[in-house]
Amino acid sequence: MKATVKGRYEGDKATAAATVALAAAGDLRLRASATDAAFAAGPSLDGLTITLEKPGAFLLNLKPHNQDVRFQFMNSATVLDKRVSLTYTHSTSLAPAAPKPAIPAPAAGAAPAPPPKGPPPGRTALDLSIAFDPANKVSVSHALGGGGCRVKYTYAHGAGRLTTIEPVYDTAKNAWEFAVARKFDAGDTVRGTYQASTKQLGLEWTRSSSIGGSFKVATTFDLSDQSKAPKLVAESTWNYEI
Fold first, then answer.
1. How does DSSP classify residue 26?
2. Coil/strand/helix, residue 86
3. 31-45, 168-182, 227-241, range with greatest mean pLDDT
4. DSSP summary character for residue 37
């Protein structure tokens, strides 16, 4: 059985999360994750997530406190010597719709009261990726019912594939995103991102530890309003064998 503890500091807010994973029958894996929201006001289901997974085949994710469910099915095949992977994801809520309360008639001249909110509608997405060779891959993501898709090209440079370049184009927003990452032999990774539509520049440094942990520091700059202070996030993750 494996356990993971993660701490996150963002501005003046600190959060924590823990995950326990164990092997079920065959290749199945069962995980239970909880954030500090599950213990903030005494033990509760808030922040609890249960996941049943068979790597490379399917994933079932359940949040008991609001009955949100996410199904994910994955499959891969070799077509014309190219590795093709397809992922189907559907998110929905099993919570029953709340009964509609009687809404009194609005007073003369007053705006009518908004209808009560029900469970969020289901969402379905398809992700397709084609690996032409170890250095070049194209991915396409599309949300059913949406007006476009995201197309990402990944290029890994050099014999060790230590430098990765990822341009992304969102057809719905007609906007580009760019990411560049560089890995180092000591376990460090430096990554930079830029979103053209929002003019958000991100810088991230990650260090992996040989004793089963990692540390990440990330900052985001809003280039559209340089008067805003950069947003700083620090994360620390530790893995344990129980």
1. T
2. strand
3. 168-182
4. G
β-pair partners for 154: 137
Predicted local confidence at residue 15, as pLDDT: 83
Tell me how many domains the chain contains: 1
State the average pLDDT over residues 119-148: 88
d(CA 52, CA 61): 7
The parent domain of residue 35 ranges over 1-65
Amino acid type, 163 = T
The Cβ-side half-sphere exposure at 139, using a 13 Å CA radius, reads 13
Instruction: Provide the terminal-to-terminal Cα distance of the chain, rounded to the nearest Å.
Output: 5
- Which helix or strand (DSSP H or E) is residue 157 part of? strand 149-157
Q: How far apart are CA 139 and CA 79, in angstroms?
A: 15
Cα 46 to chain centroid, rounded = 19
20 belongs to a structural domain: yes
Model pTM score? 0.78
Any idea what DSSP says for residue 27? T
User: How far is residue 194 CA from its own chain's centroid?
Assistant: 18
In a domain, 222, yes or no: no
Within a domain: residue 167? no
In-domain check, residue 47: yes
Q: Environment class of residue 42 by beta-carbon count within 10 Å: exposed (0-12), middle (13-18) or buried (19+)?
A: exposed
Among the listed residues 36, 35, 31, 6, the one whose alpha carbon sits nearest the alpha carbon of residue 20: 31
Residues 6+ apart with CB under 8 A from 197: 170, 173, 175, 176
**Three-state DSSP class for 38?**
helix
The CATH number assigned to the domain holding 30 equals 2.20.130
Q: Report strand pairing: 29-35 vs 13-23.
A: antiparallel
- As a residue count, the chain comes to 242
